[in-house]
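Hi C.,

You asked whether I'd gotten around to modeling the 237-residue construct. I have! Everything is below, sequence then structure, no commentary in between.
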Amino acid sequence: MSEEQPGSRASRYTVLPSTTISTPIVHELEIKRSRFIGHAVRVTTEEEASSFIAALRRQHHDARHVCSAFILGPDRDSLRSSDDREPAGTAGVPMLEALSQRETRSEPGGTVARDLSDVCVAVVRYFGGVKLGAGGLVRAYSDAVSATLDRSVTVTRQRRVLAGVDAPHAEAGRWENELRAADFHVQETRYGTGSATLVVALPDDGRSSAVFTERLASVTAGAGDWRTLGTEWVDVP
C-alpha cells in the first residue's frame, strides 16, 4: 500500500450544514434602537464570501453598515474581517473573535473544540440614533454573531483516504459484501477487463488504515492489498 501526504494538518473540522449555502441563518437583535441583523452562511472560498457580503449590501442598501468576518479551510488559515466604516476594531475583529473562539462538540458528551471553519458571518446595522461607544459596539457585534450561530446545528467535515483494493472478478462481490458487513464504507466497485477495484473510504485518523489492513487480510486470506487512490472531504453525521 502507498501513503499520500495530506493537504492539511487537520483531518477533521466543524462546519455549518450544507443547507446554509442556499438558506443562510438570520437572526436580529435590537440594542438601543439600533437593529443588528446577523447572517451566517457556509462558504469554501474568499470569492463566495465576498459575493455573499456584496449581495447583502445590495439587499440592505439603506443600512448604515454591513460588517463581516470569515474563516476558511481545515487549518483555518484564511481569515478576514471588515469594520465597514464602524470605528476600527469595534466590529470585524470582535466578529472574527466570536467565530474563532466558537466552541463546538463533535457528538453529545464528546470533546469540545474551537474548529468552526468554512463560515462567513455578516451583521447588517441599521442605526437607531443612539451611539453605543466602542465597548458597546464590540459587545453588540460579538453578540449578534453568537446569537446567529446559536440558531444552527453544526456537522463534522472529515478527510477520508480512498483505498483501492484490486480483486479478481470472481471474488469482488464477496470481498465487497464482507467489508460492508464489517462496517467499512465501500463507495463503489469498478470492473475492468482483468480485475475489479473496490474503492473504500477510510477516516484519515491514523488508526482506520491499520484496522482496515488487518480486516482485508482476513477477508481475502492474505491475497488482498490496497493502495491510496486519493483523499476527499465529506460531511459525516
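If it helps when you're writing up: The chain has two domains: 17-153, 159-236.

Thanks,
B.
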